[in-house]
Design a protein that fits this description.
Layout lengths: L4 E6 L9 H9 L2 E7 L1 H5 L5 H21 L4 E4 L2 H11 L2 E7 L5 H17 L2 E5 L14 H10 L40 H13 L5 H4 L6 H4 L4 H6 L4 H14 L2 H26 L23 H7 L6 H13 L4 H14 L4 H11 L5 H12 L12 H8 L4 H6 L30 H16 L4 H12 L26
Parallel strand pairs: 1-2, 1-4, 2-3, 4-5
Bound molecules: flavin-adenine dinucleotide.
Flavin-adenine dinucleotide binds next to α10, α12, α15 and α17.
Length: 497
Amino acid sequence: MRRPVSIVWFKRDLRLADHAPLAAAAAAGPVLPLWIVEPDQWRAPDTSGRQYLFQVECAAGLSADLAALGQKLVVRIGEPVAVLRALAAALPVAAIEAHQESTGERDFARDRAVRAWARAAGIAFREHRQNGAIRALASRDGWAARWERFTRAPIVPPPRALAPLPIDPGTIPGPQALGLPPDPCPGRQRGGRGAARSLLASFLSGRARSYRRAMASPLAGWDACSRLSPHLAAGTLSVREAAQAARAARGQAEGQLREGIDSFLTRLAWHCHFIQKIETEPGLERRALHPAYRGLEGAGEHDPRFRAWAEGRTGWPFVDACMRCLAETGWLNFRARAMLVSVATMHLGLDWRAVGLQLARRFTDYEPGIHWSQVQMQSGVTGVNTIRMYNPVKQGLDQDPDGVFVRRWIPELRGLAGAAVHTPWSAGGAAAYPPPIGDHEALARAARERLWGLRRGAGYRAAADAVQERHGSRRSGMPRTGQRRKAPAQRALPLGE
Ligand SMILES: Cc1cc2nc3c(=O)[nH]c(=O)nc-3n(C[C@H](O)[C@H](O)[C@H](O)COP(=O)(O)OP(=O)(O)OC[C@H]3O[C@@H](n4cnc5c(N)ncnc54)[C@H](O)[C@@H]3O)c2cc1C
């Protein structure tokens, strides 16, 4: 009789180190390392070819690392319960070990189905924590201390060897095989553990020096930010690994480098703080946290204003440059992301859900908990954050004073020198570049009145307090979704940079 195997189901954790499910499986006996390519996931409107290709690179690297231990990655295509059932029919399975995933309603439903099937099949299904998000969290009180403890716990070493299994490893399908539409992204970051480690090392040993100064600029932020987001999303690097490396580097650093590392550590906590929100409230990807905003969503993807925004043709140069940069590279810094959402949902009155889907597909680093919480915050529909409206021209002048970024991404404006690119209409316009989609100041005024009007409604405050109690952080240094309970909700500060 063959020894039963433990399946390690790799998802957003494509690494060997700091991988509790892999360690648990290896300690128990033979290991079947499994990556399931789920067509349903890749057909969903928030995913895209660029994200898939990034994950493929990560999975290929993981497979090579596993092969060096003795058993390469087993790849299967299909719905997880069907895949697991077929594997369990082919060889005896004792347990399925996986990381707990907090990525919204679709994946919650999938994991529920796997849990139910495993129970019925008499197979243990164990889900381990891989970040600061806590399942069935009763209260946010004490969350920050738990995050500290979690990230300070010892890093789990990878197994030394894996016994080879008599099983066809399968092959990783290309995006066409999944029916994914072409998604050209020539400047996309590369996946894989090696890329993650080298970004971490270069950031902590030097790039972090200019992090605080440059993070708000989409131009300087390109090098000054860590650029680890797609790796943290795909799990080629764990949050714990990043935090421990940062703490170690901080101990040796001084001055601006040390300050930069401190800011980075704060953001790693934010990473988990936001994932906790979707863990606590799956569905926030489609339902405004504050009830006053539900049913009031604006125009969707068929509106001409949506198309102009999505294609980088609003006639507001800094907005269009950010959008085109994102299309070509898959990345933008925080401030630019926030501005794109604010301009789309506030100035242009577009539906935050359609706006969020468009951006999600463009981000190589799409992480649902962070993404949807931020989209809601920047659209003003959480009810507990200050309404922060970005002036698209002022942002351009502040973050790109010489117009270098705009000229790089909008060739139609290359004939304009210096800061004049930010207001081409003052220079008589530019051939082939559209006139502004509207008067941004008048649009901002109208949006402000609309949003503040809702905040004066009966019952608004009580509902905002309930959102704050459920999702707000409880200490400074964390992104506060609002003041503590009794403070006026509308004065709360959304931190993000
Ligand atoms: C509308 C909007 C959507 C966003 N969607 C995503 C997303 O899908 N995936 C994603 O990882 N980040 C998202 N962010 C947060 C942030 O913009 C990115 O994490 C950051 O720009 C990634 O670049 P970096 O890795 O160089 O970040 P760094 O500045 O180097 O930060 C290090 C890490 O900390 C985390 N982090 C940084 N800023 C934040 C923040 N404000 N909130 C939560 N975590 C943070 C990320 O994991 C990041 O990789 C979004 C922000 C906004 C405003």
